[in-house]
Design brief:
Helices cover about 30% and strands about 25% of the residues. The protein is of the alpha/beta class. The protein has one domain (about 40-210): Rossmann fold (3-Layer(aba) Sandwich), CATH 3.40.50. It has a seven-stranded mixed beta sheet. It is globular and about 45 Å long.
Length: about 210
């Protein structure tokens, strides 16, 4: 069986010591009709929707940030709950496609690098969503990514993190989507956040809720 384009692109990026360059390649190839974006499901993450409904999430007069927003389904869901949403992705092609997909959207779609985000975003949001970005990064850069994401959460704010789960006795994958150990999700608590909840949303995904007191 032929390896999917995104896996080949990721492997080539890693070989060039580039943890993130493959994202733009995937979106650009998809725009050209030469590949698909495998994580584009045309709906918000089910774990996000279930969690938001269970806790009655209300975004009125609150500011949210969506990390690695892709084509915008999670961002639009949060905007529908009343949040003022900023959504960013490292891929300029993804941001352009999201703006086309959601014409007239109130979401501010921005091209930005998680590791060099605008300084004004630091501790600037009431709610931060991290849905499957960390699991798309190799182990060597995940601690930096977790720290950068935690830093977006403002005083009194919250973070929701969703990621594929890996058991302690399960071998690590060589290519994305990676699976994350519980300890990796717990490490958001190393950067000024309190772990409010961390469990399995289903058999495959961690759901972590964190707060900055």
């Amino acid at each position: 069986m032929t390896e999917p384009f995104y896996k080949r692109a990721a492997a080539e990026s890693y070989a060039a010591d580039d943890a993130t360059g493959w994202f733009e390649r995937v979106y650009a190839a998809a725009e050209a009709g030469e590949a698909v974006v495998p994580w584009d499901h045309h709906e918000p993450a089910p774990a996000l929707v279930s969690w938001a409904r269970a806790c009655g999430l209300n975004g009125a007069r609150r500011r949210a940030l969506v990390v690695g927003c892709g084509l915008g389904d999670d961002a639009e869901f949060l905007a529908g709950l009343g949040f003022s949403v900023v959504a960013f992705d490292i891929s300029a092609t993804a941001i352009e496609a999201a703006r086309r997909r959601w014409p007239g959207s109130p979401v501010a779609y921005e091209q930005a690098d998680l590791f060099a985000a605008p300084p004004e975003w630091a501790r600037g949001f009431d709610f931060v969503l991290e849905d499957a970005t960390v699991q798309a990064l190799p182990e060597s850069v995940r601690p930096r990514a977790i720290r950068a994401i935690a830093e977006f959460v403002g005083p009194g704010g919250a973070l929701l993190a969703i990621a594929r789960a890996r058991r302690d006795d399960e071998p690590a994958r060589e290519l994305p989507p990676f699976t994350l150990l519980r300890a990796e999700l717990e490490s958001f608590g190393d950067f000024g956040l309190t772990v409010v909840r961390l469990d399995l949303a289903d058999e495959l995904h961690w759901l972590g809720e964190y707060a900055r007191v």
